[in-house]
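The material for today's practical consists of a large collection of protein records. Backbone structure tokens are a discrete shorthand for how the chain folds in space. An example says more than a description, so a record of this kind follows:
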Amino acid sequence: MKVVNTIIELKSILDACREKGMSIGFVPTMGALHNGHASLVERSVSENDITVVSVFVNPTQFNDKNDLKNYPRTLDADCALLERVGAAVVFAPTVEEMYPTEDTRQFSFEPLDTVMEGACRPGHFNGVAQIVSKLFYAVEPHKAYFGEKDFQQLAIIREMVRRLAFNIEIVGCPIVREEDGLAMSSRNTLLSDDERERALTISSALFASADFAKVNTLAATKAFVEDMIDDTEGLELEYFQIVDGNTLQQIEEWGDSDYVVGCIALFCGNVRLIDNIKYKEVR
């Protein structure tokens, strides 16, 4: 496995692969890797000749400077994990490498980016689009892999690829959870033991709501989840919305869409966590 820090070196390696007709898979990450990330890499390895993983904490997608400062950085451990699961190249650039000058591009993905995370974290998805597009230009992968835990982000990446005409297949991969149900997240390492225990209410509420929803209205299901969160000390709900999985717009009745997803964001202590659950998905 090679670890490179510059776009020039990365392109040199990948151009040689393309000349040999090799397919390139790509997994963009912000590091602090866990088994959820590993599952993305393993899928890419199984579907491509070579897999590239980027490890870069992107400053332009943080609207909270303390969140950026406190985001875990564990490059050595990340590289050890990536080598175990078969990554061929790790791209770990500096901020100066990715942003030699200020990126002034402004992206709009209405209505996808005006709700939920977009409403709560102004500028977040503009930063995501800036860095992911830069990485796509640098790597030029055939396929790129994203986790469905960041459900809204995945929808916006798909839309960005369409609008910028990238010839890249975006592959969404299922949420990977701990044995007790908590969605795997790099931020979980910031939780105290007590907070980690309280955070289990998130997945418990979502799982219970899936059964509740079978015999109750959408409004009652929404209230069911909100009440479970509100009743747990140390959790502060930011939003729980039940949306159309394609448009990300809130719906009022189960019959309003064939693809229904419940998306949640909350604070557990000072740590912000997100999760989601699919109530309906026509395949």
Observations:
- The longest helix spans residues 193-212.
- The CA atoms of residues 41 and 200 lie 26 Å apart.
